[in-house]
Amino acid sequence: MSLAGKPALFDCVTIFPEMFAALTGAGIPRKALEEGRWCFRAWNPRDFSGFTARSVDDRPYGGGPGMVMRPGPLEAVIRAAQARQAEEGRPSRVICLSPQGALLTHQRVMELTRQAEAGTGFILLCGRYEGIDERLIARMVEEEISVGDFVLSGGELPAMTLMDAVIRQLPGVLGDAASASEDSFVAGLLDCPHYTRPEEYQGQRVPEVLLSGNHASIRRWRLKAALARTRERRPDLLRNRALSAEETQLLAEILREEAHGKEQCGEH
Ligand code: 9WO
Predict the structure, then answer these.
(1) Average pLDDT over residues 233-247
(2) Which of 39, 86, 180, 242 has its CA 20 to 30 A from that of 218?
(3) 35, 143, 183, 258: which is the annotated catalytic residue?
Protein backbone atom coordinates (compact mmCIF):
# COMPACT_ATOMS: atom_id res chain seq x y z
CA MET A 1 0.00 0.00 0.00
CA SER A 2 1.18 3.53 -0.77
CA LEU A 3 2.05 6.18 1.80
CA ALA A 4 -1.12 7.99 0.77
CA GLY A 5 -2.94 4.85 1.92
CA LYS A 6 -4.07 3.82 -1.55
CA PRO A 7 -2.72 1.13 -3.84
CA ALA A 8 -0.99 2.13 -7.07
CA LEU A 9 -3.61 2.32 -9.82
CA PHE A 10 -3.32 1.51 -13.52
CA ASP A 11 -6.33 2.00 -15.79
CA CYS A 12 -5.35 0.57 -19.17
CA VAL A 13 -7.11 1.60 -22.39
CA THR A 14 -6.87 -1.40 -24.71
CA ILE A 15 -8.84 -3.40 -27.24
CA PHE A 16 -7.03 -6.53 -25.91
CA PRO A 17 -7.74 -6.56 -22.15
CA GLU A 18 -7.07 -10.33 -21.97
CA MET A 19 -3.36 -9.70 -22.68
CA PHE A 20 -2.96 -8.19 -19.19
CA ALA A 21 -3.44 -11.65 -17.62
CA ALA A 22 0.28 -12.06 -18.38
CA LEU A 23 0.93 -9.45 -15.67
CA THR A 24 -1.98 -9.98 -13.26
CA GLY A 25 -1.71 -13.78 -13.35
CA ALA A 26 1.93 -14.60 -12.64
CA GLY A 27 4.83 -14.01 -10.30
CA ILE A 28 5.58 -10.94 -8.20
CA PRO A 29 2.93 -8.68 -9.83
CA ARG A 30 0.22 -11.28 -9.17
CA LYS A 31 1.22 -11.63 -5.51
CA ALA A 32 1.37 -7.84 -5.06
CA LEU A 33 -2.07 -7.53 -6.70
CA GLU A 34 -3.50 -10.15 -4.31
CA GLU A 35 -1.95 -8.23 -1.40
CA GLY A 36 -3.78 -5.08 -2.55
CA ARG A 37 -0.60 -3.11 -3.35
CA TRP A 38 -1.85 -2.16 -6.82
CA CYS A 39 -5.09 -2.16 -8.81
CA PHE A 40 -5.73 -2.85 -12.45
CA ARG A 41 -8.72 -2.06 -14.65
CA ALA A 42 -9.06 -2.46 -18.40
CA TRP A 43 -11.11 0.00 -20.45
CA ASN A 44 -12.10 -1.10 -23.94
CA PRO A 45 -12.51 1.69 -26.52
CA ARG A 46 -14.92 -0.62 -28.39
CA ASP A 47 -17.44 -0.01 -25.58
CA PHE A 48 -17.33 3.68 -26.61
CA SER A 49 -17.31 3.10 -30.40
CA GLY A 50 -20.69 4.66 -31.12
CA PHE A 51 -21.16 2.15 -33.96
CA THR A 52 -23.02 -1.17 -33.72
CA ALA A 53 -19.99 -2.84 -35.33
CA ARG A 54 -17.96 -1.53 -32.36
CA SER A 55 -15.19 -0.38 -34.71
CA VAL A 56 -12.59 2.01 -33.30
CA ASP A 57 -10.44 2.52 -36.44
CA ASP A 58 -10.74 4.14 -39.85
CA ARG A 59 -8.65 4.71 -42.97
CA PRO A 60 -5.75 7.20 -42.83
CA TYR A 61 -6.19 10.61 -44.43
CA GLY A 62 -3.52 10.99 -47.11
CA GLY A 63 -3.78 7.31 -47.98
CA GLY A 64 -1.41 4.48 -47.27
CA PRO A 65 -1.71 1.05 -45.72
CA GLY A 66 -3.46 0.12 -42.50
CA MET A 67 -5.90 1.87 -40.22
CA VAL A 68 -5.75 4.63 -37.60
CA MET A 69 -7.52 4.67 -34.21
CA ARG A 70 -10.39 7.21 -34.26
CA PRO A 71 -10.16 10.05 -31.72
CA GLY A 72 -13.84 9.93 -30.60
CA PRO A 73 -13.93 6.51 -28.89
CA LEU A 74 -10.51 7.10 -27.31
CA GLU A 75 -11.51 10.48 -25.85
CA ALA A 76 -14.74 8.95 -24.48
CA VAL A 77 -12.98 5.99 -22.87
CA ILE A 78 -10.19 8.16 -21.38
CA ARG A 79 -12.78 10.60 -19.96
CA ALA A 80 -14.65 7.67 -18.39
CA ALA A 81 -11.44 6.41 -16.74
CA GLN A 82 -10.58 9.95 -15.56
CA ALA A 83 -14.09 10.37 -14.10
CA ARG A 84 -13.73 7.09 -12.17
CA GLN A 85 -10.34 8.13 -10.77
CA ALA A 86 -11.74 11.56 -9.80
CA GLU A 87 -14.60 9.80 -7.91
CA GLU A 88 -11.90 7.91 -6.07
CA GLY A 89 -10.22 11.19 -5.13
CA ARG A 90 -7.22 10.70 -7.33
CA PRO A 91 -5.44 13.00 -9.79
CA SER A 92 -4.98 11.28 -13.19
CA ARG A 93 -2.00 11.07 -15.48
CA VAL A 94 -2.54 9.94 -19.10
CA ILE A 95 0.46 8.19 -20.67
CA CYS A 96 0.62 6.74 -24.18
CA LEU A 97 3.06 3.91 -24.89
CA SER A 98 4.68 4.74 -28.19
CA PRO A 99 8.02 4.47 -30.04
CA GLN A 100 7.69 8.28 -30.43
CA GLY A 101 8.01 8.75 -26.65
CA ALA A 102 11.01 9.38 -24.41
CA LEU A 103 12.85 6.18 -23.44
CA LEU A 104 11.86 4.66 -20.10
CA THR A 105 14.77 4.64 -17.64
CA HIS A 106 15.26 3.49 -14.05
CA GLN A 107 15.10 7.16 -13.01
CA ARG A 108 11.74 7.67 -14.74
CA VAL A 109 10.43 4.42 -13.20
CA MET A 110 11.31 5.79 -9.73
CA GLU A 111 9.56 9.11 -10.51
CA LEU A 112 6.41 7.29 -11.67
CA THR A 113 6.55 5.09 -8.56
CA ARG A 114 6.64 8.20 -6.31
CA GLN A 115 3.59 9.58 -8.14
CA ALA A 116 1.75 6.24 -7.81
CA GLU A 117 2.54 6.17 -4.07
CA ALA A 118 1.26 9.73 -3.71
CA GLY A 119 -2.10 8.62 -5.16
CA THR A 120 -1.89 9.55 -8.85
CA GLY A 121 -3.92 7.16 -11.00
CA PHE A 122 -2.27 6.25 -14.28
CA ILE A 123 -4.24 5.89 -17.49
CA LEU A 124 -2.12 3.92 -19.93
CA LEU A 125 -3.21 4.30 -23.54
CA CYS A 126 -2.26 1.26 -25.65
CA GLY A 127 -2.40 1.94 -29.39
CA ARG A 128 -3.02 -0.63 -32.12
CA TYR A 129 -3.16 -0.59 -35.94
CA GLU A 130 -0.81 1.96 -37.57
CA GLY A 131 -1.31 4.51 -34.82
CA ILE A 132 -3.60 6.98 -33.04
CA ASP A 133 -5.14 10.16 -34.51
CA GLU A 134 -2.65 12.91 -33.55
CA ARG A 135 -5.43 15.26 -32.35
CA LEU A 136 -6.40 12.75 -29.63
CA ILE A 137 -2.78 12.65 -28.47
CA ALA A 138 -2.60 16.47 -28.44
CA ARG A 139 -5.90 16.77 -26.47
CA MET A 140 -5.62 13.94 -23.95
CA VAL A 141 -2.09 12.56 -23.61
CA GLU A 142 0.30 14.22 -21.13
CA GLU A 143 3.32 12.06 -21.86
CA GLU A 144 4.50 9.51 -24.42
CA ILE A 145 6.84 6.78 -23.19
CA SER A 146 8.86 4.27 -25.24
CA VAL A 147 10.40 1.08 -23.85
CA GLY A 148 12.86 0.73 -26.73
CA ASP A 149 13.67 1.73 -30.30
CA PHE A 150 11.60 -0.87 -32.10
CA VAL A 151 8.03 -1.23 -33.37
CA LEU A 152 5.61 -3.76 -31.88
CA SER A 153 2.04 -4.70 -32.78
CA GLY A 154 0.64 -2.48 -30.04
CA GLY A 155 1.26 -0.66 -26.77
CA GLU A 156 0.04 -3.42 -24.41
CA LEU A 157 3.39 -5.16 -23.85
CA PRO A 158 5.16 -1.80 -23.23
CA ALA A 159 2.35 -0.84 -20.78
CA MET A 160 2.89 -4.12 -18.90
CA THR A 161 6.65 -3.49 -18.96
CA LEU A 162 6.15 -0.06 -17.36
CA MET A 163 3.68 -1.45 -14.80
CA ASP A 164 5.98 -4.34 -13.86
CA ALA A 165 8.92 -1.95 -13.39
CA VAL A 166 6.83 0.32 -11.11
CA ILE A 167 5.10 -2.49 -9.18
CA ARG A 168 8.38 -4.10 -8.06
CA GLN A 169 9.44 -0.71 -6.61
CA LEU A 170 6.29 -0.34 -4.48
CA PRO A 171 6.91 -0.71 -0.73
CA GLY A 172 6.62 -4.30 0.49
CA VAL A 173 6.54 -5.88 -2.96
CA LEU A 174 10.10 -7.24 -3.00
CA GLY A 175 11.60 -9.03 0.00
CA ASP A 176 14.78 -7.61 1.55
CA ALA A 177 16.97 -10.10 -0.31
CA ALA A 178 15.54 -9.21 -3.69
CA SER A 179 15.65 -5.45 -3.07
CA ALA A 180 19.32 -5.73 -2.10
CA SER A 181 20.06 -7.46 -5.41
CA GLU A 182 18.51 -4.42 -7.04
CA ASP A 183 21.36 -2.26 -5.72
CA SER A 184 23.45 -2.68 -8.83
CA PHE A 185 21.09 -0.97 -11.27
CA VAL A 186 20.17 1.54 -8.62
CA ALA A 187 23.88 2.31 -8.62
CA GLY A 188 23.72 2.83 -12.41
CA LEU A 189 25.77 -0.27 -13.29
CA LEU A 190 24.92 -3.57 -14.95
CA ASP A 191 24.47 -6.52 -12.62
CA CYS A 192 27.39 -8.80 -11.75
CA PRO A 193 27.32 -12.51 -12.79
CA HIS A 194 25.47 -14.98 -10.55
CA TYR A 195 26.27 -18.60 -9.70
CA THR A 196 24.56 -21.46 -7.87
CA ARG A 197 25.30 -25.17 -7.34
CA PRO A 198 27.13 -27.20 -8.52
CA GLU A 199 30.61 -25.76 -7.75
CA GLU A 200 31.81 -27.18 -11.08
CA TYR A 201 29.54 -27.33 -14.12
CA GLN A 202 30.73 -28.77 -17.45
CA GLY A 203 34.35 -28.10 -16.44
CA GLN A 204 33.66 -24.48 -15.35
CA ARG A 205 34.24 -23.62 -11.70
CA VAL A 206 32.46 -20.96 -9.68
CA PRO A 207 34.91 -18.06 -8.97
CA GLU A 208 36.76 -19.09 -5.76
CA VAL A 209 36.13 -15.80 -3.94
CA LEU A 210 32.37 -16.57 -3.90
CA LEU A 211 33.09 -19.78 -1.94
CA SER A 212 35.43 -18.02 0.52
CA GLY A 213 32.84 -16.71 2.96
CA ASN A 214 34.79 -13.42 3.06
CA HIS A 215 31.94 -10.96 2.60
CA ALA A 216 34.16 -7.92 2.12
CA SER A 217 36.10 -9.63 -0.71
CA ILE A 218 32.88 -10.91 -2.24
CA ARG A 219 31.32 -7.43 -2.26
CA ARG A 220 34.49 -6.00 -3.85
CA TRP A 221 34.61 -8.80 -6.48
CA ARG A 222 30.97 -8.22 -7.39
CA LEU A 223 31.44 -4.45 -7.71
CA LYS A 224 34.52 -5.03 -9.90
CA ALA A 225 32.65 -7.54 -12.09
CA ALA A 226 29.76 -5.07 -12.46
CA LEU A 227 32.17 -2.29 -13.44
CA ALA A 228 34.02 -4.52 -15.96
CA ARG A 229 30.76 -5.63 -17.55
CA THR A 230 29.37 -2.12 -17.72
CA ARG A 231 32.60 -0.85 -19.34
CA GLU A 232 32.51 -3.70 -21.86
CA ARG A 233 28.80 -3.68 -22.77
CA ARG A 234 27.41 -0.26 -21.83
CA PRO A 235 30.22 2.32 -21.61
CA ASP A 236 27.53 5.01 -22.04
CA LEU A 237 26.29 4.21 -18.51
CA LEU A 238 29.77 4.83 -17.04
CA ARG A 239 30.19 8.16 -18.81
CA ASN A 240 26.95 9.44 -17.22
CA ARG A 241 27.93 8.46 -13.71
CA ALA A 242 30.37 9.69 -11.05
CA LEU A 243 32.68 6.99 -9.63
CA SER A 244 33.51 6.53 -5.95
CA ALA A 245 37.15 6.24 -4.87
CA GLU A 246 36.75 2.44 -4.58
CA GLU A 247 35.20 2.21 -8.04
CA THR A 248 37.97 4.34 -9.56
CA GLN A 249 40.54 2.00 -8.03
CA LEU A 250 38.72 -1.13 -9.27
CA LEU A 251 38.40 0.35 -12.76
CA ALA A 252 42.16 1.06 -12.76
CA GLU A 253 42.72 -2.63 -11.84
CA ILE A 254 40.43 -3.67 -14.71
CA LEU A 255 42.34 -1.50 -17.20
CA ARG A 256 45.70 -2.83 -15.94
CA GLU A 257 44.52 -6.44 -16.25
CA GLU A 258 43.16 -5.72 -19.72
CA ALA A 259 46.52 -4.23 -20.84
CA HIS A 260 48.24 -7.35 -19.45
CA GLY A 261 45.87 -9.61 -21.36
CA LYS A 262 46.77 -7.83 -24.62
CA GLU A 263 50.51 -8.13 -23.88
CA GLN A 264 50.12 -11.87 -23.35
CA CYS A 265 48.42 -12.12 -26.74
CA GLY A 266 51.27 -10.09 -28.24
CA GLU A 267 48.88 -7.38 -29.39
CA HIS A 268 50.31 -4.17 -27.84
C1 9WO B 1 4.82 2.05 -36.89
C2 9WO B 1 5.88 2.56 -37.60
C3 9WO B 1 6.42 2.23 -38.84
C4 9WO B 1 7.53 2.93 -39.29
C5 9WO B 1 8.10 3.94 -38.54
C6 9WO B 1 7.56 4.27 -37.28
C7 9WO B 1 6.45 3.56 -36.85
N8 9WO B 1 5.77 3.67 -35.73
C9 9WO B 1 4.78 2.77 -35.73
C10 9WO B 1 3.84 2.64 -34.67
O11 9WO B 1 3.90 3.38 -33.71
N12 9WO B 1 2.93 1.64 -34.80
C13 9WO B 1 1.98 1.31 -33.77
C14 9WO B 1 2.01 0.03 -33.09
C15 9WO B 1 0.90 2.24 -33.49
C16 9WO B 1 0.36 2.14 -32.13
C17 9WO B 1 1.07 1.25 -31.13
N18 9WO B 1 2.03 0.37 -31.68
C19 9WO B 1 3.22 0.27 -31.04
C20 9WO B 1 3.63 0.77 -29.82
N21 9WO B 1 4.26 -0.36 -31.57
N22 9WO B 1 5.31 -0.26 -30.75
C23 9WO B 1 4.96 0.41 -29.66
C24 9WO B 1 5.91 0.71 -28.63
C25 9WO B 1 5.52 1.40 -27.50
C26 9WO B 1 6.48 1.68 -26.52
N27 9WO B 1 7.75 1.29 -26.66
C28 9WO B 1 8.14 0.63 -27.77
C29 9WO B 1 7.24 0.33 -28.77
Answers:
(1) 96
(2) 242
(3) 183
